[in-house]
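Readers of this paper often ask what the protein records in our data store actually look like. Nothing more is needed to write down the fold, since each code stands for a local backbone conformation. Below, we set out a record of this kind in full and without editing:
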Amino acid sequence: MEIENRLDGNAAGGILQAIFPFDMTLAQATCTGCGITTIIGTLAVYMHKMGTIVRCPSCDHALIRVALVKDHYWLDMRGVRVLQIASPGI
């Protein structure tokens, strides 16, 4: 993976906001690779013409992959063991 393409997790906020009705950068994701739990806004993000990949900063495992193809979002979250989302009232 080329280091110059690496951004922080906030860079994925726009595409994730198009899919989820809340701020995904504040959600916590647990990596299936190493088990670390981290706020999505702090994860490593790689954005390409083919899509966006959110990776674990600890083990570099792909947590989330998103692509927009012909007005459809393709979302792969198999790298996330658990997604913790704060209740809006808290």
